[in-house]
Design goal:
Immunoglobulin-like; elongated; 9 helices; about 40% helix; five-stranded mixed beta sheet; 12 strands; about 400 residues; disordered N terminus
């Protein structure tokens, strides 16, 4: 799956002249979080948008017209909703029914077992209820006398007690087996170790054996099933509880202060896998997104080599960026951020040494462009209300030169 850089136009504007439906969503700049609801395939997105709008319009118009019978209205609406859900599921990059790593495959198999069992229970109970409603419905020839009352049945009571217990025990043992197989899997010697630290509201990734520190975008090599090289993630939190969840790669793992939890992932195919912090951690929990880049061994080695380099030292051919570096190093930015090879050694915020090499800023919620970066520096809370980075109240010239400097940090 190719990694696409998405443009940042207005997202959606839907309007109807009679006022039934008005413009609902419009972002400037368009958040990269939209990738959660669209693929690079515009045809899928168009079909999904049309189905969603058709469902809304049909509901509104039918409610006003009152011209459809209840059964017909329900059937049409149900059909639209089913097709909308189907399109959304097919085009979602966080589809739990499309596993791409060993832990996710195990969870998927367990989910199918649970769904199968619960579906069978639903069909049996619903079938018996429907049979009783039809078979014993009131008829004109029925007597008005109360039917004979039966008080208790040992066979029935024993059945609806023992069978549910057996089902629960079976599901419990199946879940325990999946958890045990995932957590007790032996760690190969060639596994990659990554330390993951959750912050409000961003992710820090440290590669201890490689000497690399980055933020928000996790890069890992793919794992060949014939010679597995999984990535082991050691997780903790610097402040409150977070939860690391990339649905196509593995289940949720909590990041808790003063505790280390471990999980592993082994995607066999290259691509971008999206996820989300799954534990409410504050005002910007919804925009604490996850981006995992699974790369070929050669591409991952090239990325590591790039990340191991210090920030560009010679900016003599770029006077604007050189001035920006001076302004950056003489402001409070260096108290929170690190740029290797400079006096900026802050650890409270993300490492900016290779900021320009990232596709996004603000924990995956905003596309990394010079325009968005300038807006972010000017006042982060405009784009991400509740984030902990304050505005430095810089004037326009300083904003321009700092942005020019940061865009050189590849």
């Amino acid at each position: 799956m190719a990694i696409h850089h998405l443009a940042a136009p207005k997202l959606v504007s839907i309007a109807q002249t009679n006022g039934i439906l008005r413009s609902t969503f419009e972002f400037h700049p368009r958040p990269v979080a939209v990738e959660y609801f669209r693929q690079a395939d515009g045809t899928k997105e168009a079909r999904l948008n049309v189905l969603c709008v058709a469902t809304i319009l049909f509901t509104k118009l039918a409610g006003r017209a009152k011209c459809l019978s209840v059964p017909r209205y329900s059937a049409v609406l149900t059909g639209l909703l089913v097709f909308s859900a189907r399109e959304a599921l097919a085009s979602s990059p966080t589809n739990i029914f499309d596993p791409a790593a060993t832990p996710a495959h195990s969870i998927f198999s367990l989910s199918m077992l649970v769904l199968s069992v619960t579906l069978a229970i639903f069909l049996i109970v619903g079938g018996l209820l429907l049979y009783a409603l039809i078979r014993f419905r009131h008829r004109p020839s029925d007597s008005d006398h109360e039917p004979a009352q039966i008080y208790g049945s040992n066979q029935i009571e024993l059945s609806w007690t023992v069978i549910p217990i057996l089902i629960v025990v079976m599901l419990f043992l199946s879940t325990t087996r999946v958890i045990w197989q995932t957590e007790a899997a032996p760690k190969p010697s060639g596994a990659l170790d990554v330390v993951v630290i959750g912050h409000q509201f961003w992710w820090e990734y440290q590669y201890p054996k490689l000497g690399v520190i980055t933020a928000n975008e996790l890069h890992i090599p793919i794992s060949d099933p014939k010679s597995p090289t999984p990535t082991y993630l050691e997780m903790s939190s610097a402040d409150v509880s977070h939860s690391f969840w990339v649905p196509r790669l593995a289940g949720k793992t909590d990041l808790i202060p003063n505790r280390i939890n471990t999980m592993w992932i082994d995607p066999p195919e290259t691509g971008l896998y999206l996820g989300q912090c799954a534990q409410y951690c504050g005002a910007q929990h919804a925009k604490m997104l996850l981006r995992v880049y699974a790369q070929s061994p050669a591409d991952f080695a090239a990325w590591v080599k790039q990340q191991q380099q210090p920030a560009q030292a010679d900016l003599s051919n770029n006077p604007l960026a050189e001035e920006g570096r001076v302004v950056f190093l003489h402001n409070a930015c260096i108290n929170c951020h690190t740029v290797s090879g400079t006096s900026a050694t802050g650890r409270f915020g993300p490492d900016l040494t290779h900021l320009a090499s990232r596709d996004t800023i603000a924990a995956g919620s905003i596309e990394n462009t010079p325009q968005n970066l300038r807006k972010w520096i000017a006042d982060p809370n405009v784009l991400k209300p509740g984030c902990l980075m304050p505005s430095m109240h810089l004037h326009d010239h300083d904003l321009d030169v700092i942005t020019a400097y940061l865009t050189t940090l590849h």
